Amino acid sequence: MSLVQNKKVLASILASITLFAVSTPARAATSGAVIISVNQDFTSPIGTAVVTGAIGDYGTIQGADANGKISKLAATPNALIKLKKGTILIDATSMNKATSSAPLIQNTTCSFSLTATTVPWPIIKGSGAYKSVKGTLSVTLQLGGITPLYSAGPNKGKCDFSNKFPPVASYFNVLATGTITY
Fold first, then answer.
1. What is the pLDDT of residues 2-22, one digit of tens each?
2. Distance CA 130, CA 49 (A)
3. 62-103 tens-digit pLDDT
4. Residues 6 or more apart from 126 whose CB is under 8 A from it?
5. Residues 89 and 83: beta-carbon distance below 8 Å
6. What is the pTM of this model?
7. What are the Cα distances from residue 135, in Å, to 123, 124, 138, 177, 178?
8. What is the spatial distance between Cα 139 and Cα 21, in angstroms, rounded to a whole number?
9. Radius of gyration in angstroms for the set of CA atoms belonging to the chain, rounded to a whole number
């Protein structure tokens, strides 16, 4: 091949690469409304999470520290949602403050319940498909249960709200809504 032919082939290859680069769009940011539904056994540190709307994914949720490291503390400052396509770390400080109020206690039925709504629940960071996630959520939490009865002593047969034993039945539901971008 002559030098002129080599230059033409090289120019053709460069034109093809340039055309491909120009015609291949960068991934556009996805944004929109999301709803995160969490269900958890009151005595378990891990719940299930389903995210619908701008994100369609599911997985688990658990308390975490500011770096996203799983924590076994009862009142962790954050919540880590581990989804199939990545993770989302949320600042749950406002929820911890909202749930510090006393629950409604019914001594005649041995039941307790608490509902709390908080704003904001800012998203701290994400990973995987959600590595650039940003947004703020409004969260409503509902929890409740039935306590066991004292089996002996001066309170025998009365409701045991002491937290020494787990509830005999319980629920823990969270619904978060907001707008995100990722």
1. 544 444 544 444 344 433 444
2. 15
3. 999 888 898 776 667 899 999 999 999 999 888 767 777 778
4. 86, 87, 88, 89, 132, 133, 182
5. no
6. 0.76
7. 6, 9, 10, 10, 7
8. 43
9. 26
Distance from C-alpha of 97 to C-alpha of 44, rounded to nearest angstrom: 20
Six token digits for residue 149 = 């009865």
Q: Are 88 and 123 in contact (CB under 8 A)?
A: yes
Structure tokens at 122: 């800012």
Q: In this structure, what token pair is assigned to residue 182?
A: 């990722």
DSSP secondary-structure letter at 70?
B
Which tokens go with 181?
A: 């971008």
Q: Which of 52, 130, 124, 56 is nearest to 86 (CA)?
A: 130
